[in-house]
């Protein structure tokens, strides 16, 4: 493992990056640099949810040419003299006349002419004579230069913005802050739970790429590798596995998270397929089968958290009372997680409340 640089040591979480953007991005453009596939683009969704009076606007800078930023249009003055004005791209949102959240994605990969064209927008919130609403937020994202993906910034570009580094999420942050609410397949979540330190390692921590065959490394040619983004894609394949052959699934997983990752994830698919189904627990909570090992039990609890609805809470609480104490405690702690979308629905259920009182988990006032 190599020593961390100052930038790596003080890198921010995704939530901290979002807070920085909300605090200053009406006047200072923040450029968020981070590893590939770690959720940089998802910041626009988070900001839009936090700021419902703003209009989210997205520009993929890597796909644009100079003419995509503004196009000329010919106008005529009162004295019949023609002149040229410029109309900005509608994706920038100036025409709304309302506050926008403008995300300039993949800024480091943009053509040099495109970078230059948006410099005034990033510094002054104007394109030509067209100005964004004064409450608008502007931020940009890009990959780390050390990843070797073509992200380059000139000094005069950097001098107009604030660059902050976003770190990879920890396995726990990814599971509790994203995966459960997003419905990521429980087999994927359990795999990350058990081997997340390896799967979520950064290439800066790994001097020899062969010592970690799962992750992206600029010194190794890997067509596919594990990132939070590719794990979400792998989850889609697992949810669709009943409609494809096992060979197709294996090939798809290998083509999504790499040969080693795809092969290793298969073991967790087999465990998941042996778990009792939701309908079995609902119809017979005191008789449905109990998993015979800890990994399967925790996967089942994750299943319940993801598939929870009002009709399922009470049967689940009856079934859960048959599981070991660790599994029950894990369920309750995940329900109490402020980011769990179904927290209120579960915590207001009488059977959940009764369980908390009986087990000295007096958290019902947290809703």
Descriptive report:
The chain has 367 residues and is an alpha/beta fold. It folds into 2 domains: 161 residues, Rossmann fold (3-Layer(aba) Sandwich), CATH 3.40.50; 196 residues, no CATH class. Helix content is 44%, strand content 13%. The protein has a 5-stranded parallel β-sheet, covered by helices on one side. α10 crosses α11. The protein is globular and about 90 Å long.
Using the alpha-carbon principal axes, give the shape. Answer: globular
Strand numbers in spatial order across the main sheet: 2-5-8-1-9
SS content category: alpha/beta
Measured by DSSP, the beta-strand proportion falls in 5-15%
Oligomer: single chain
- As a percent range, the share of helical residues equals 40-55%
Q: Give the SSE string.
A: HHEHEEEEHHEEEHEHHHHHHHHHHH
The structural domain count equals: 2
Mean pLDDT across every amino acid position: 91
Q: Termini distance? A: 42 Å
The unreliable regions are 362-367
Total number of β-strand segments? 9
Rg, rounded, reads 25 Å
Question: What attributes does this structure have?
Answer:
367 residues; alpha/beta; Rossmann fold; 2 domains; 5-stranded parallel beta sheet; two-stranded antiparallel ribbon; 9 strands; 44% helix; globular; disordered C terminus
Helix/strand layout:
Blueprint: H1 6-9, H2 14-24, E1 30-34, H3 43-50, E2 55-60, E3 70-76, E4 82-88, E5 100-105, H4 112-117, H5 119-124, E6 126-127, E7 130-131, E8 137-143, H6 155-158, E9 162-166, H7 171-182, H8 186-199, H9 228-239, H10 246-257, H11 259-273, H12 278-283, H13 294-307, H14 310-320, H15 325-336, H16 343-347, H17 350-358
Parallel strand pairs: 1-8, 1-9, 2-5, 5-8
Antiparallel strand pairs: 3-4, 6-7
